[in-house]
């Protein structure tokens, strides 16, 4: 074996060639890239990509990928011409709702370090002289736009050729016109790639096959949840107004343009205009019916990813194009096609290693916009063991099993296509599929008028209409201010009443959707002790809140570990990614020492959980259980088996809302009876069924972090306010050495609690925060604190910012004054929790 692993990359598009280049630049020298089409024009999505790169995204990670792609393509040049034309990007608003959306998008850009500004209609017309300067046929007109000067046009096909040339010079082998027919394995690891030219030995295989990725995944039994969809793109005939404007036939000087109110985008091609449309019906692609194009017949107009144009789908959009750019009335559609690219259930890319076949990786559903950034992160993952960019929204194993089915992938991916330019609220749920995963309490929740939002397929109540009458009883000091329209969406004043009842009486919460694992066996303790920051060796009955760290000390997840027996543990984790991480590590541990085997199972669907919390929680449970649940009978962060009305229940003395009470677990068949027993027992004590609206408010009042929102792998425990979760003097756990070193380094930024000065402005998250007039951080979580009677926001800020300092949060273009505040805001002495 040579100095580096034998790597085979499947696909020589913009992702595969970037990955080969990134690996070679890090010193890996045994890389083969296999492409089924000719290398000169492979015929995949890259070959027809129009190349528009708009960097700003609600996701910090996706914005970073795009920014790196811009920088890399700018630096990639030949004959003095780079592969990126930085003409800027302009997004238009023709409705007040879109203009407000652009202001919010500018906030994202500022949070993630992208320069941009809102411009008026006159300035929009200066950047695009062809724009309609008057009213459209329906009475609308251009109100303004978002200008991002660093956006622009990527020459994707040209970049691929330059990357191939550079990677070849570094020793990478490229095989064109070579189909992949299988993946060889031995002992659960990849050993080679079967091709039409023979077997290529491999230690690592990375699928960068684009919309063929689902088919490649099947070769190792992996469900790759992507759907190939066709997307329309046309070029017009020449415009007299464009004659001589651009020096090159396909050149551009005006910014790339989005007209999202009509699902359209535009770019210049010399004296012609290119137009892309998402306004048509979804066009899923049957892979069996793809055009079969011989290598010697491949051309710009003839390739597998380019389907015949369907004029009837584009006709309504053509009228909208002429409305926006009146000069198009004097042109025709010269060329049009339906180009194939990949969509996923949540719109994100698919990255990472198979949990079942070691050495098989994917980097799929990646657009040109993010291509080099994704390749960089994948190279870091392969060479260094982890990427330097947080990938929690990109990991392929983030989906639950049902979310990788053909039916789910098809429906949700098509819906993402339809909604790609829609104005979507952060809490906006899918309309379908719904009722996919429901807890045993669902029938009662519906009877109580639950308003459900969906997450990971689960139906989760956010408030209950049955509690609306409590608003008449709500004390004045608990009444929250009226929210502005955006913050009011998918929220209800009923949440204030539910928080009030939880703080003063008792609330019943459905905690079933929180993922639960069982870890059993003689190696269970060693596994959890090695992977976590906590001291798991405490005797049975102990519950430990701790972290799973990456090798560099970053937080890969936070977990709750309950030791139910000597070799039996129950874990509360964040996602399917945690499940796969634990079971892969258990498999490795067992292979190294068979006596230290541990079985990791997902028990979420077979169990259920009720959170019974509030100062009267003991009175309620005391009516249906004779077990001792006093402070002496079950201390804080302890667990024991009890009986509730004859139902076997595992009671854990935990509370995510900061009130006395328990998480009560039982198997699913007892769930509905458990709910009924507790709800009936609580009637005389004012019990309410309560939802996520109240829950989220109270957890922020207590300063409890939400992984993936407040902290990610970018952050270490001490800067995140989670140093307490690292057991003192514990060594040898994953990330321990790196964490010790990072602890000694001065923190550059820290997670801080803010309260909004005016007492009424409620932000939602990801807004930029200004310190001394300069953008210096961003909001993570935010909510109105019903108990503390003011809006709360947590934010990453420079460590020099101190308690009492004034900052500003930018919300829809206006600055909202806030104050850095000591935390937790509610019950800092923990008397209520331990009462």
Low-confidence stretches: none
Shape: globular
Radius of gyration (Å)? 28 Å
The biggest beta sheet reads: 10 strands, mixed
Count every beta strand, where a strand is a DSSP E run of 2 or more residues: 43
End-to-end distance: 63 Å
Helix count equals: 20
How helical, in percent, are the residues? 10-25%
**Relative strand content:** 25-35%
Mean pLDDT, rounded to whole units?
A: 96
Structural class: alpha+beta
Descriptive notes:
It is a single chain. Helices cover 24% and strands 28% of the residues. It contains 20 helices and 43 strands. Strands 7, 8, 9, 16, 17, 18, 19, 20, 21 and 22 form a ten-stranded mixed beta sheet that branches. A six-stranded mixed beta sheet has the order 11-2-1-15-24-23. It has a six-stranded mixed beta sheet with strand order 34-35-36-33-27-37.
Topology:
Layout: E1 7-10, H1 14-25, E2 31-34, H2 45-48, E3 52-53, H3 60-75, E4 77-78, E5 81-82, E6 84-85, E7 89-93, H4 96-111, E8 117-120, H5 121-127, E9 144-148, E10 152-154, H6 156-169, E11 173-175, E12 180-186, E13 189-195, E14 198-201, E15 204-207, H7 213-218, E16 227-236, E17 256-259, E18 264-269, E19 272-277, E20 283-284, E21 306-307, H8 311-324, E22 333-343, E23 350-353, E24 360-364, H9 371-384, H10 406-418, H11 442-447, E25 450-455, E26 458-464, H12 485-488, H13 494-504, E27 507-510, E28 516-520, H14 524-531, E29 543-549, E30 555-565, E31 568-572, H15 576-592, E32 599-602, E33 607-613, H16 617-622, E34 639-644, E35 647-652, E36 661-667, H17 671-681, E37 688-689, H18 692-701, H19 736-744, E38 749-756, E39 768-771, E40 774-785, E41 790-798, E42 806-811, E43 814-821, H20 831-834
Parallel strand pairs: 1-2, 1-15, 2-11, 7-17, 15-24, 27-37
Antiparallel strand pairs: 3-10, 4-5, 6-10, 7-9, 8-9, 12-13, 13-14, 16-19, 16-20, 16-22, 17-18, 18-19, 21-22, 23-24, 25-26, 27-33, 28-31, 28-32, 29-30, 30-31, 33-36, 34-35, 35-36, 38-41, 38-43, 39-40, 39-42, 40-41, 42-43
Helix pairs in contact: 1-6, 1-9, 3-9, 13-18
